């Protein structure tokens, strides 16, 4: 039986409390944080902040003029920017932040309903993308004969970044070691091939494995001292190494040509056949008409095969003890060590393997460009590759592909959109905004989806049945 | 000897600037354990704001001394306020939403923010360097001597005096702020244990925001000094200065304020002596190598506490 308080059992203190409550002033309901007024106030504050931040950058501009610096004002641009921030924030408040039914929740609910079908979509997407990549050069030469060279060139660029992304994914995504100096290995690969070609007359195919080995060697040299470091310290030291290599390349004039770089790097040949006009060339040998596009198609297939090799090796490695050890290392280094995993070897193989693929990509870059200089290997390049890996979802192979296509291809696409020039004026050059968009996407996607665009992971070891696991279940990239 | 003294003065001046930036890194690392990679770019933003103000006021070397002092004071305060707003915004947009996420997430957004800031300034202010005519010229001659290369004069310029004096004043003020005020107490408590601090009524989010604001304000001072000392800035100065200041913070022991200042002075001296006695080209290699060596062999720095690993 539950004891019920009655008139007689209620203690005196409680009665007094009731009286006090009755006498207390009526409680005013708290202001509704979802009201329109609150939304407006918040949007106003955001606009004010934008005004403060943008005043010296959007409103004013200093330029070099004879006799010192002059200042020009751009109040139109400044006011437009502030108004855009106000309107954007207000729209976000009304639809997402300050409402009982955020639009995002409805969308997320709709998306989570058909996770199964999304999986099927992903399954098909992989195969369709692969099939498309396989026939890509012929697709463009057949359907866009005028602009095929431009499109195939872009495809080569995207494929290079996919390969670099997959290479870095071994280090960052699987082994969980954040490497901010990945471009150093790219540079080692490129310079190895260029110097081997210059001094020993080696061709692309001879130099490619050597460049990979040299890059892997450098991966171990740079990996060895940082074995004890973890997390952000590791990231900063790898950044320092990357910069040291770049500065050395820039200043060791006798060996690397310094800022002038190395030019005249040989083009790749197909079993000794050069892609040139006239006798002895590829077209002549097969008895077809010479077309400069043949060389681009060949380059495309080289990088395509290199990228596929990278992917296959990574996927097979994940199933091998060393791959399992990488992932275990990412999850918990201390547990790894106590279970008898040799963390030194595990880390070094991850560094070496990642670096090797970076080196391959580097030699390909050198042969494609025919010219290299330290300018191509700045920290920014490392940041772009890292951004691709991160945005795609650390450790996700298909994510890297989506991110590369979206980021590299998307920006190139902007350049070709004519109507943007009508909106922003004739001098509008989207490539100027490339890195700005990159940075914003990096911050935005990280805040919105910290696990990247593709946030499910395939478990590498399963009991009975393979299940998708959410990426939040794995301690992605903890670095220890 | 004279050459040595001159280099010593130059090194201390440069070191003061690094030290001021390093404080921002060390405070943020101390309180939330992340490398604020965008801090170097906050410094760059600060120096651009100072440049715009100086051009807007019309300050030149021809102005009277009183006007120069007053104008520089105004420029200093306004650029501190506006740069602090940038620091606050960066924290609010890129770091606060990721508090409690996996450890590398804020580092990645920090790199993203650094790219955003650099390119925002590049797009809005142009990619070309901005030269500023020297405003404070002249100095005091300390020593005169003769070397095999001819006469040498050791000079302490007014600019260098200003930088060293301002840094010292800021350091004293800042130490008092951390040690004596309730804000400083809140910061130190958050540094020790955020959860406990929150339970005891410290507004953790606000304290962290204020840490970023203070770091950015100090970076703005460094930005103004850099602008006045070198007279040339561009959108990319934040990267190198940031890495060197971070090196300074690590060298001094990350999380320690006097350590940051000490590390800054050491890095400044090393850089200047390296360029003075060895090669100018490899001075950045020197800074980067020190970073790597310190992190590998002395991760807790000169004045820092060693980190204890808990399982």
UniProtKB/TrEMBL annotation, chain B:
- CDD domains in the cross-refs: TM_PBP1_LivH_like (cd06582)
Q: Does the keyword Transcription apply?
A: no
Instruction: Reply yes or no: does the keyword Secreted apply.
Output: no
Identify the domain of life. Answer: Bacteria
Membrane spanning stretches: 12-35, 42-61, 67-90, 102-121, 158-178, 208-229, 286-304
Q: Which GO terms describe its biological process?
A: D-alanine transmembrane transport; L-alanine transport; L-isoleucine import across plasma membrane
Tell me the protein family, please.
Answer: Belongs to the binding-protein-dependent transport system permease family. LivHM subfamily.
Question: What protein name is recorded for this chain?
Answer: Branched-chain amino acid ABC transporter permease LivH
Provide the species name.
Zhengella mangrovi
């Amino acid at each position: 039986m539950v004891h019920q308080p009655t008139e007689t059992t209620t203690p005196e203190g409680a009665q007094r409390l009731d009286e006090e409550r009755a006498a207390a002033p009526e409680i005013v309901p708290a202001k509704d944080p979802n009201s329109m007024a609150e939304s407006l106030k918040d949007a106003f504050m955001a606009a004010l902040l934008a005004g403060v931040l943008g005043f010296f950058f959007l409103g004013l501009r200093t330029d070099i003029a004879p006799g010192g610096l002059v200042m020009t004002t751009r109040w139109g641009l400044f006011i437009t920017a502030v108004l855009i921030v106000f309107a954007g924030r207000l729209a976000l408040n009304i639809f997402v932040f300050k409402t009982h039914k955020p639009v995002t929740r409805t969308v997320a609910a709709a998306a989570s309903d058909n996770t199964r079908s999304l999986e099927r979509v992903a399954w098909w997407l992989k195969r369709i993308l692969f099939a498309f990549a396989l026939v890509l050069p012929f697709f463009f030469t057949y359907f866009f004969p005028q602009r095929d060279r431009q499109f195939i060139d872009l495809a080569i660029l995207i494929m290079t970044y996919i390969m670099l992304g997959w290479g870095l994914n071994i280090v960052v995504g699987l082994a969980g070691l954040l490497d901010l100096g990945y471009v150093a290995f790219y540079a080692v690969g490129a310079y190895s091939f260029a110097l081997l070609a210059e001094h020993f007359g080696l061709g692309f195919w001879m130099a490619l494995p050597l460049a990979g080995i040299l890059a892997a060697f450098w991966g171990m040299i740079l990996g060895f001292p940082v074995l004890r470091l973890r997390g952000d310290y590791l990231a900063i030291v790898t950044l320092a190494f990357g910069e040291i290599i770049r500065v050395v390349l820039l200043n060791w004039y006798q060996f690397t040509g310094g800022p002038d770089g190395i030019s005249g790097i040989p083009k790749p040949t197909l079993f000794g056949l050069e892609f040139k006009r006239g006798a002895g060339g590829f077209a002549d040998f097969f008895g077809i008409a010479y077309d400069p596009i043949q060389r681009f198609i060949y380059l495309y297939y080289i990088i395509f095969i290199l990228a596929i090799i990278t992917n296959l090796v990574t996927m097979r490695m994940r199933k091998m003890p060393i791959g399992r050890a990488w992932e275990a290392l990412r999850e918990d280094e201390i547990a790894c060590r106590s279970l008898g995993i040799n963390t030194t070897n595990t880390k070094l193989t991850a560094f070496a393997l990642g670096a090797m693929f970076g080196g391959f990509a580097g030699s390909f870059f050198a042969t494609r460009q025919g010219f290299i200089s330290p300018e191509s290997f700045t920290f920014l390049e490392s940041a772009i590759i890292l951004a691709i890996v991160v945005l795609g979802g650390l450790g996700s192979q298909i994510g890297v592909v989506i991110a590369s296509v979206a980021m590299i291809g998307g920006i190139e696409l902007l350049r070709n959109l004519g109507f943007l020039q009508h909106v922003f004026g004739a001098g509008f050059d989207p490539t100027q905004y490339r890195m700005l968009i990159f940075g914003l996407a990096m911050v935005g996607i990280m805040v919105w989806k910290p696990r990247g665009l593709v946030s499910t992971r395939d478990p590498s070891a399963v009991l009975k049945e393979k299940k998708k696991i959410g990426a939040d279940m794995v301690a992605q990239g903890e670095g220890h | 000897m004279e050459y040595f003294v001159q280099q010593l003065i130059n090194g201390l001046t440069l070191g003061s600037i690094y030290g001021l930036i390093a404080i921002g890194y060390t405070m943020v690392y101390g309180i939330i354990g992340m490398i604020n990679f965008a801090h170097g770019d906050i410094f760059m933003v600060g120096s651009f704001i100072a440049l715009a103000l100086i051009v807007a006021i019309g300050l030149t070397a021809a102005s009277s001394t009183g006007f120069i002092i007053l104008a520089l004071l105004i420029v200093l305060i306004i650029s501190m306020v506006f740069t602090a707003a940038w620091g606050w915004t960066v924290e609010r947009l890129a770091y606060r939403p990721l508090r409690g996420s996996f450890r590398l997430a804020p580092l990645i957004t920090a790199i993203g923010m650094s790219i955003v800031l650099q390119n925002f300034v590049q797009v809005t202010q142009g990619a070309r360097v901005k030269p500023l005519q020297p405003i404070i010229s002249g100095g005091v001659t300390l020593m005169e001597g003769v070397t095999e290369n001819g006469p040498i004069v050791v000079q302490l310029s007014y600019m260098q005096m200003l930088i060293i004096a301002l840094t010292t004043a800021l350091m004293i003020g800042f130490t008092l702020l951390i040690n004596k005020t309730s804000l400083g107490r809140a910061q130190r408590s958050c540094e020790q244990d955020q959860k406990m601090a929150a339970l005891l009524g410290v507004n953790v989010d606000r304290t962290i925001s204020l840490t970023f604001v203070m770091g950015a304000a100090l970076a703005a001072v460094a930005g103004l000094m850099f602008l006045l000392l070198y007279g040339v800035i561009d959108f990319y100065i934040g990267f190198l200065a940031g890495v060197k200041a971070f090196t300074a913070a690590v060298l001094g022991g990350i999380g320690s304020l006097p350590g940051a200042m000490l590390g800054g002075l050491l890095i400044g001296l090393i850089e200047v002596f390296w360029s003075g006695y060895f090669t100018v080209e490899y001075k950045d290699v020197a800074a980067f190598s020190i970073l790597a060596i310190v992190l590998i062999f002395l991760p807790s720095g000169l004045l820092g506490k060693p980190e204890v690993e808990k399982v």
